[in-house]
Give the backbone structure.
Amino acid sequence: MGDPAGIGPEVVVKALADPKIRAMARFVVLGMNELMAYAADLAEIDPYWWRLQHDSPIARDDMVQPVVVMDYDEYSLLGQSVARPTRQGGQASLRFLEDALAMATAPAHAPGRIDAIVTAPICKESWRLAGARFPGHTEFLQQRTRSKRAVMMFASSKLNVALATVHLPLMDVRNVLTIGAVYDPIDLGHEACKRLGIEKPRIAVCGLNPHASENGAFGDEEERLIKPAIETARAQGINVRGPFPGDTIFRDAVAGRYDLVVAMYHDQGLIPLKLLAFDEAVNLTLGLPVIRTSPDHGTAFDIVGQNKADPGSMKSAIRLAVTLATHAASQV
């Protein structure tokens, strides 16, 4: 459910209210039943789920239900003015995520084991108030699964983007960027594109500096870090080109010349993506032993409780999770 004080409950309820979405899989919602019921009432949606207390053992009959809500009713926000960062919201969303990860990493055929995780938005400030040191889902999941590599990728019908660096102050990007940091989204992004049905992915890589440094006039990161990563990927048989100026390469990708753009930092890649595909883009974490997708938007505290949240990105996140889980099952 993500942060219960945000629009997570609303977009979950609205997305799973779609019969076509519900028919794709069986769903376990880790969250708060009272908030889902409240969101359903505002949207004039009849409750369609089966409720269980979160610490109840999951029986085989429970998993036959299309939607089961594991209710964490010890966290109660209903009736409170909490559409803002809160310690309780951080504690709850961390707990939901911890338990979801435990279910995703349980042994095969274990009761309650899940095939993929779809995360509604969390509030990073709420996590800080709760004492968490993680900047976001990506870093949390990488550490908890002890993954050597984790890359944030965003997929949409208009543009696909992978990031070399994630949640960092802009001034720190230059100190964190390495050949490996550029290579990983090329390599993992290439594999992800193939799982998404792109047989021969074409990848473009952004430069870090204006005009991709224009042959060293505005910095040396392109020559020193980005080009070696591209050359290493090419040696592995990956069709990748660059570095290209960040202010023009996205036009070529949208025009169909590239299947994926690797951006050097968060806003370089996400500004064009959210401008073009805000209501359909999906955040996909690459490099983990579990499947994790998420909508590309935040908690939207400003519209909580107003029945204004668009579930489009959540629906896309669910569809992609099902696609990836189906692909994974076919490889076993």
Q: What stands out?
A: The chain has a mean pLDDT of 91.
